[in-house]
Amino acid sequence: MELNEFIQVVVNAISIGAVYALLALGLTLLFGIMDILFFAHGAMYMLGAYAAFYLCTKLELNYFLSIPIGIAIIGLLGVVMEKGLFRPIRKDHVAVIFLAIGLNWFLESAGYIVFGLRPKQVDSVFTGQLNVWGAIISWERAVVVIIGLLAVVCLYFFLMKTRWGLGMRAFAEDPSAAELQGISNDTVCSLGFLIGCGLAALAGLLVAPIFIITPTMGSHAVLISLLVIGLGGLGSIPGALISAFIIGIIESFGTSYLGADITWGMIFIFVVIFLIIRPTGLMGVERE
Amino acid sequence: MTTEQQRKEPESKTRVTAGAPQQSMIFFGVALVLLCLLPLGVRNEYYLHVLIAIFYHIIYATTYRFILRTGQFHFGAHAFIGIGAYASVLLVMKAGLSFWVAMPAAGIIAAVFAVLIGYPTLRLKGIYFAIITWGFADTLRFIYMRFKEPFGGPLGIFSIPAPDPITIPFFGKIDFSQKSHYYFLALFMMMVVLYILHRMEKSRFGLIFGAIREGDQLAKAVGINIMSYKVLAFAVCSGLAATAGSFYAHYTYYISPLDFSVLLTIYLAIYTIVGGQDRYSGVIFGTVILMLAGEIFAGYSHYQLLMYSGFLILVLLFLPGGMVSLPGTLNQFFTRTGPKQLEDNKYGPA
Questions:
Q1: Which of A8, A276, B8, B66 is deepest in the core (most CB within 10 A)?
Q2: Structural element, H or E, at residue A136
Q3: Which residues between 173 and 232 in chain B have a beta carbon less than 8 angstroms from any beta carbon of chain A?
Q4: Model ipTM value
Q5: Domains of chain A by range and CATH?
Q6: Is the pTM of this model over 0.90?
Q7: What is the mean pLDDT of residues B215-235?
C-alpha cells in the first residue's frame, strides 16, 4: 500500500512535469535564442487549446489531424507577429518585453470577447488507463508525457545537430557576427517564433482534453513556465526539462502529503531560495 | 575656442532645465488649486469617484515608474498594494487601531516586506526579478485565499470601516460621510507622494538611480553601493504604494484577493509606458487619459483591457517616448529637422 501510493505519486509527478516541460520549452527557446521574454507564449498556448476545441469539437476533425493544423496556424501567427511587431523594435529589450506583455493580455481579452466566457472542453480521444507497477495513469496523460519528452528531444537535436540549429545557436552567441557569416538575423528570428509559438500551440493542443479551456489559462501557464525556466536557467533546454520535473515532483508530493494550497508557496519559496544561491539557475550560463 | 564651447554647452543646458521646473511648478500649482476647488462645483458622486480612483492610481503608477527607473523590471506591484490594503484592514478591524495609525503602519509593513524580498533578489538582473516578484505576489494571493482567518478567504473582507473622523484646523471636522472628504484625502496623499518622489528624483538619489540605470558596473566602480540604493528605492516606493492600497481598502469598504491580481501591475505598466516613462508628467498624463478612456468601457473589463493593451502595442511601435513625446515627434515629423537641430532649438519641444 505504501509503495503503491509512492509510485502513484511519482507517476503523477512525471505527468505534471511533462506538461510543465512542454509549456516552458517554447519560452526557453525564444529566450535562449533571441533574449526575448515572450509573455505572449501564454496566449499562444491558450489559442492552441481553443484550436483543439474548434477543430475537434466544432469542425469534427480527427484529433491527430487537428494537431498539425493547429500548430501550423499558430506558428504562422507567431511569424506574422515577429515580422510585423517585434522586428522593428527588436534591439530594444525593455520595449520587447512590454510589447509581449501587451500582446498577451490583448489576445487574452480578445479571447474573452471572441470565444466567450464559458469554459470549453474537448472530448478525450484516449480512453482507459495504463497500469505502471500498480500505479494508475490515464492514457491521455501518458500521451502528454510521451509527446512532451519527444518534443524536448527533437528540439534538442534540432538545435544541436542541424544546420538551422547551428545558425540559431550562432545567432544566440553573437547576432552581428552571425550576420557577417551569412546567417540572416531576420530569418533566425522568424524561425524562432515559428518554433516557439508552434511549441506553445502543441502544449495547448495536447492538454486541451485534460484541462478546462478558458481564456485566462495562458497567464497562469506563463507564470508556471517562468518559474520553470527561471529554476532551470534561462535559455537552457535541458535545464528546463530537469526543473520541470523537479517542480512536478514538489507539486505532486506536496499535494499528496501536505495539501494543494501550501504547495504553490513551497514551489515559489524553493525557486526563490535556489535563485538567490545560484542566480543563473540550474544550467544557465552567465550572459551579458 | 574649445574651452569656450565647452563652457557654453553646459550653460545652455542648465538654462533649459532651470526653466522647465518653474513652468511645471506653475502648472502643478494651478492644477492643484483647480482640483481643490473642484468638489465645490461638482456634486456628482460619479465624477468624484472617477477622480479619486485616478488619484490613487497615480500613486501606484508613479511609484511603479520609479522602480522601473532604477532599472528593475518589477512585476509584483500588486503584491505590495495588497499587503498595504490587507495590513491596514487587519490593523483596524482586528487590532482596533485608528485608520490614521494603520495607514502609515501598513506602508511600513509593506516596506519591510520589500526589503526582505528586495535585498536578496534585487541583485538578480532583469527577468529573474520579474519572475520572483510575480511569484511572490501570486503566493500572497494564495495565502489570502487559503486562510479564511484572518484574510477572509476567496470572498475577501467586507464592511471595512471608514477612516475615523478627524478635525483639521480651518477645515472643520472631516467624518468621511461624503465622497468629497475622500476626495481631499486622496488628493492630499497623491500630492505628498508626488512631492516625495519628485524630491527623490531631483536629489542625489535621482542622479544615482540614473547612474545605476545607465550602467550599474560603472556606478559600482565609482563607489556607489548599488544594492542599498536599489533596496531603498524599492522599499520606499512599495511602502508609498501600500499606503495608497490602504486608502483603497477603506474607500471601497471591501477587498478581495481578486483586487490584487497581476492585472493591476499590467495596468500600471501600461499607464507608465503609454504615458511615457521618462517624465512624471508622462505617467500622470497616461494614467489620467487611460482611466478616463477606460470609463467608456466601465464594467466591461475585457474591452477595457483590450483597448489598453492595444494602446500599449501602438505606443511601443510608433511612439517610443510615450504620449508626452507626441508633440515633439509631430514637430520633428512636420518640420523634418534632425534631432540635433531640435536640441539647439530653445522653443522646440521641452
A1: B66
A2: strand A135-138
A3: none
A4: 0.85
A5: 2-277 (1.10.3470)
A6: no
A7: 83
